[in-house]
Amino acid sequence: MKKKLLIGLALGAGLSVAAATAQAATINLTGTIRDFNASHPHMEGAIDGLVTGLVESTLGADENPVRTTKVTSSMPGDLSLFNQWYNDVAGVNMAQALTITLDSAITADPDVYTYTNSAFFPIDNQLFGNEGRSHNYHFTFELHTDFTYQGGETFAFTGDDDLWVFINDQLAIDLGGVHGAVSGSVDLDTLGLTVGEIYDFDLFFAERHTTQSNFRIDTSIALHDNEPVPEPSTMLLFGSGLASLAGARLRKRKASRK
Q1: Residue 10 within any structural domain of the chain
Q2: Taking the C-alpha atoms of 90, 93, 96 and 99 in order, what is their torsion angle to the nearest 10 degrees?
Q3: N or C: which end of the chain has fewer CB within 10 A?
Q4: Would you say residue 3 lies in a domain?
Q5: Is-contact 65 194, C-beta < 8 A?
Q6: What beta strand segments (E) does 87-197 contain?
Q7: Range of 249's domain?
Q8: Per the domain annotation, does 8 fall within a domain?
Q9: 118-126 CB contacts, 8 Å cutoff, 24+ apart
Q10: Residue 167 belongs to domain with CATH number
Q11: Any alpha helices (H) in the chain, and if so which ranges?
Q12: Could you tell me which residues come within 8 angstroms of residue 191 by beta carbon, excluding any fewer than 6 positions away?
């Protein structure tokens, strides 16, 4: 009798967790933000406008964008300088975690999750500091998660400066260069994905110049939360079963190594 009760409780809890996930009003995404000094060769330089083709169409083996040889005035110097954007480099950048929350209540469509910030300066007076400016304008931000493709999803971004989105390791939105707020979007139905399969989602952003920083996401993709959540003591009863389900959902590549 006790065994049946425990099984029933476990199944009930599993259904409750699944229902809560399906009905989630927000999505919490934790990424890594890296601060740079304004003196870095790729910061506070030329304003070259929107430049596509600065990165390869496929993520590199290290799960970072791969710089092409395309010339742009805002990114002079050796190609290795770009490798500093999304890697921890002592003396060059300083890193910390940043969580953004996408909310389904911001627009009229409850199926669209939105994060919007027209003054996206999350590390003001932190890390290297503002360097005498009104904001800390020189940083990169990357986040990594995954999602189960349902069919019909879209992802749209508006902001400045550089923004690259990779889905299934393939470049889906390409908004490189130092520029004012520009928009890009992708219809996932055009990517050859299979309904019901889990795919990786990788976003790489850079803010490189005074005076603006806009960051807006609108998406119908039910991205999986990648923010660590402590397990309630009552859930310890179900232990490895629920843990394995969570592990299947959460990406353990770059995000887990930071």
Answers
A1: no
A2: -150
A3: N
A4: no
A5: no
A6: 93-103, 113-117, 139-148, 154-159, 163-167, 170-175, 182-187
A7: 26-257
A8: no
A9: 118/214, 118/216, 119/213, 120/159, 120/207, 120/213, 120/214, 120/215, 121/213, 122/33, 122/98, 123/33, 123/35, 123/96, 123/98, 126/35, 126/96
A10: 2.60.120
A11: 2-22, 80-83, 239-249
A12: 167, 168, 170, 172
For residue 86, which amino acid is it? Y
Residue 249 placed within a domain? yes
N-term to C-term CA, the chain: 46
Whole-angstrom Cα distance, residue 106 to residue 57? Answer: 32
**Kind and range of the H or E run holding 132:** none
CA distance 206 to 40: 13
* Per-residue model confidence as pLDDT tens for the chain (258 residues): 433 434 443 444 444 444 444 558 999 999 999 999 999 999 999 999 999 999 999 999 999 999 999 989 999 988 899 999 999 999 999 999 999 999 999 999 999 999 999 999 999 999 999 999 999 999 999 999 999 999 999 999 999 999 999 999 999 999 999 999 999 999 999 999 999 999 999 999 999 999 999 999 999 999 999 865 454 443 444 444 443 343 444 444 554 444
Residue whose structure tokens are 């299947």: 248
Degrees, nearest 5: CA angle 33-247-206? 15
Task: Count how many domains the chain has.
Answer: 1
| Three-state secondary-structure class, residue 244 | helix
DSSP 233: G
Q: Strands 154-159 and 215-219, how do they pair?
A: antiparallel
